[in-house]
Write a structure and sequence with these properties.
10% strand; 2 domains; 58% helix; 11 helices; rod-shaped; alpha+beta; 13 strands; single chain
């Protein structure tokens, strides 16, 4: 080997070591950055010596797609679990203390106590107060549900705004990556930023990606709509500022295609937007229907009947906007839970008489005026346990007593909460596992980088000694030729 060739090899080795050291130093500096993928210098043989062909960015497309899927599922389940917990606290209260089922049980106890001493006006007023508590529970529960739906709507609007912002940022980064790829520049930093944006986007909506020539990326949703292709596709949503029992929430559209809400406690929703659509339009609406059916059941249970069997039943202890008539049997009356109230004829606070609960308000049952008359009170207490027809739209058994139906509403919510919490644990674990597996392949291990840096230091020293030897040999050769 000539001295010229040896000198060229030594110089190339020093240059390669310098670049490799720079790459390793960058890796160490970015070790705490979760969106940074490890870089490595790829050497290729040349004559003479070797050269750095490219700087390779660590990546695993299969694991990255799995992680995006897991993140979307977890975020959807997380939103579902949080929403159900909020509904439980705002509608039923801690330990179901304010649930209609709890209030109905207390009303039944008050009726039984009043029936044991029907001449006691204090017990009569206590029974009416228990009825007021039932009404407050239904009214406040219905209001809490509509407030929850309005808040979910606002959260959807915020999420849509964030998603559009992320897509706008993605367009800028994707353009940089495509232009850099076509001109031969290093685009590793752009790919890092682009992957970080994909992770954020997947929190809102399920996505899949397709890489075209020039590193150009196309993003599709889980529903098959195009989310990004060269430019962001519009994500639109018209929010409602207020919600009532009959209000229908607006859909979220991606490139003109409506998003599909999730289904079930262990929700099929992938991404927080689909989960919040489910909470707003399915879960909360179902709870509203159940409360409406409880209210209808109470009005029917406490309806007064004509002792002669001639005239129609009329609203008794509980009435509504359609009173004194009674709601049709087995048919959902939308918004009834928000409008149910105690009959003023039996409410002392409204100028009525609590003793009419014992005697009858519209139809007189205690014809003798006996202070010990308790037949009607016992009838009401028994009716609370008698099966009646409920609308299947409430999602529960259609033949139950009003007391059992009210407890079924609590069980329904608790069952969904349990499924949601269990699903959240599993989906979070999957997201963590896929993120860890991806990190093990693409992130920086400082110990490995420091070991590599030590090897590069030794290589630099060897190259430096080789240069020193060549320099001495050249000096000796020049001395000999003089």
């Amino acid at each position: 080997m000539s001295l010229t060739s040896a000198l060229s090899i030594a110089q190339t080795a020093l240059f390669n070591t310098s670049r490799q050291t720079s790459v390793v130093s960058r890796n160490v500096a970015e070790a705490s950055n979760p969106d940074y993928a490890r870089r490595s210098a790829v050497l290729t043989s040349t004559l003479p010596g070797a050269r750095i062909a490219k700087i390779k960015r660590a990546a695993d497309e299969v694991l990255f797609r799995q992680n995006l899927f897991a993140v979307s599922s977890w975020q959807g389940q997380k939103a579902m679990s949080g929403g159900l917990n909020t509904l439980q606290l705002t509608v039923n209260g801690a330990d179901n203390a304010t649930a209609p089922a709890t209030a109905i049980s207390k009303l039944q106890a008050a009726l039984q106590l009043y029936a044991s001493t029907p001449s006691n006006t204090t017990l009569a007023e206590s029974a009416v107060q228990a009825a007021h508590q039932v009404v407050r529970s239904l009214n406040s529960g219905a209001g809490a549900i509509q407030t929850f739906r309005a808040e979910a709507d606002a959260e959807i609007a915020t999420a849509v705004g964030d998603l559009n912002r992320l897509l706008a940022e993605f367009e800028v980064v994707n353009t940089e990556v495509v232009n850099g790829t076509r001109t031969g520049r290093d685009v590793a930093d752009g790919l890092d930023r682009r992957d970080a944006l994909l992770k954020q986007i997947s929190q809102y909506v399920a996505i899949s990606t397709n890489t075209r020539s020039g590193n150009d990326l196309v993003i599709m949703t889980g529903d098959g709509a195009t989310l990004f292709e060269t430019v962001p596709r519009p994500v639109t949503f018209n929010a409602n500022s207020t919600y009532g029992p009959a209000t229908t929430g607006n859909a979220v559209y991606i490139d003109g295609v409506p998003m599909t809400p999730g289904v079930g406690g262990n929700t099929s929703a992938r991404g927080s937007i689909a989960a919040r659509l489910q909470l707003r339009d399915d879960t909360a609406v179902m709870m509203q229907r159940q409360l409406d059916e409880v209210a209808r059941g109470l009005i029917t249970t406490f309806a007064e009947t004509d002792p002669n069997g001639v005239l129609a039943d009329v609203a008794g202890l509980f009435t509504w906007s359609g009173g004194p008539g009674v709601p049709p049997a087995g048919t959902l009356e939308v918004g009834l839970a928000a409008g149910i109230r105690v009959n003023a004829l039996m409410d002392p606070a409204a100028g009525g008489s609590a003793s009419l609960l014992r005697d009858g308000a519209t139809y007189l049952h205690n014809t003798s005026g006996a202070a010990s008359y308790s037949d009607l009170l016992r009838t009401y207490s028994e009716r609370l346990e008698e099966p009646m027809a409920f609308d299947p739209a409430a999602g529960l058994d259609t033949t139950r007593s009003v007391t059992a139906f009210s407890f079924d509403t609590v069980s329904w919510l608790e069952s969904n909460r349990q499924q949601a919490d269990s699903g959240a644990e599993g989906k979070e674990a999957l997201a963590v596992r896929t993120a860890t597996a991806l990190s093990n392949l693409t992130s920086v291990n400082v110990d490995e980088e420091m070991a590599l840096l030590l090897d590069l230091e030794h290589a630099y020293e060897a190259s430096a000694r080789l240069l020193s030897v060549i320099n001495e040999m050249l000096a000796t050769l020049m001395q000999a030729t003089r």
